[in-house]
Amino acid sequence: MFFHQHPYPPFIKEDTTKLIVGTLPPPRFSVGELLEKDVNFCYGSYFNSLWLFIDKIYDLNLRYDNSEEAVVQRKNFLIAHKIGICDIVESAERQKMDASDMGLTNIHLRNIIGYLQDYPNIDTLLFTGGNSKNGPEYFFRRHLKTYGLKLKVVSDEVPRIHEFELPAKLTTVEEPSISSPKKSTQLRTIKTVSLTSGSGAANISISRMPLYQHLKAKNPDFNTFDFRVLQYREFI
């Protein structure tokens, strides 16, 4: 059994307004065995593609290697655009040394609600995956339940958008007999957006989407990478 510890702390600044939320990077990042094009930072796997989407959208000409310059480029972008990164899984165990979220067991989540309270400028969570089992939205819904909170649908079309009201002060529901947490009257609306995962496994679901099929019919060269760029451009 491999103990998979998240190798990076949350990257959040005082003026951060959007928070990218995933699960865990591939195990090789936790043991320091990076590939040639990997970057030693959040979403650093070249095969994850998040930074490829961002690079395409903003024409950043990013480096894809193990250099410190590659890390600095990504941090500078995030700071300039008031975007933070805080994956929801702190640690887990897995039978196989792969990046599949389905293989995670004994999962320990980060306190995303606590970070939202510590950084009051954050108003949007960008999940890099949906509500399938062990995806970031799935874990966040479980996390919300410990505070007696739940998501409300804003748009049920991909990418699905939800929101919830976050009290200024909040404690967990620790006893089954307690129907709701202790809350203050001050509420802050947090929007969540479940972006299509950057993993190759999501390509099949993309190919079945009516919008993708429509765009593909109009332009045979249009592909799943282009589809994600189109989607991510609206929110990042």
Describe the structure.
The protein has 236 residues and is of the alpha/beta class. The chain is built from eight helices and nine strands. The protein has a six-stranded mixed sheet with strand order 3-2-6-9-8-7. It has a three-stranded antiparallel sheet with strand order 1-4-5, covered by helices on one side. Helix 2 packs across helix 8. The protein is globular and about 50 Å long.
User: Between the first and last Cα atoms, what is the distance in angstroms?
Assistant: 36 Å
Spans where pLDDT lies below 50 across 5 or more residues: 175-184
Overall, the morphology is globular
If helices are DSSP runs of H or I spanning 4 or more residues, what is the number of helices? 8
Strand order of the largest sheet: 3-2-6-9-8-7
Report mean pLDDT, rounded to a whole number: 90
Order of helices and strands: EEHHHEEEHEHEEEHHH
Q: What's the story with the biggest beta sheet? A: 6 strands, mixed
The helix content is 25-40%
> Beta-sheet strand percentage?
15-25%
Give the quaternary arrangement of the chains: single chain
Question: What would you report as the Rg, rounded to the nearest angstrom?
Answer: 18 Å
* Class from helix and strand fractions: alpha/beta
- How many beta-strand elements? 9
Helices, strands, pairings?
Elements: E1 2-5, E2 18-21, H1 27-30, H2 50-58, H3 68-80, E3 83-85, E4 89-94, E5 104-109, H4 112-118, E6 124-127, H5 136-145, E7 152-155, E8 160-167, E9 187-194, H6 203-207, H7 210-218, H8 224-233
Parallel strand pairs: 2-3, 2-6, 6-9
Antiparallel strand pairs: 1-4, 4-5, 7-8, 8-9
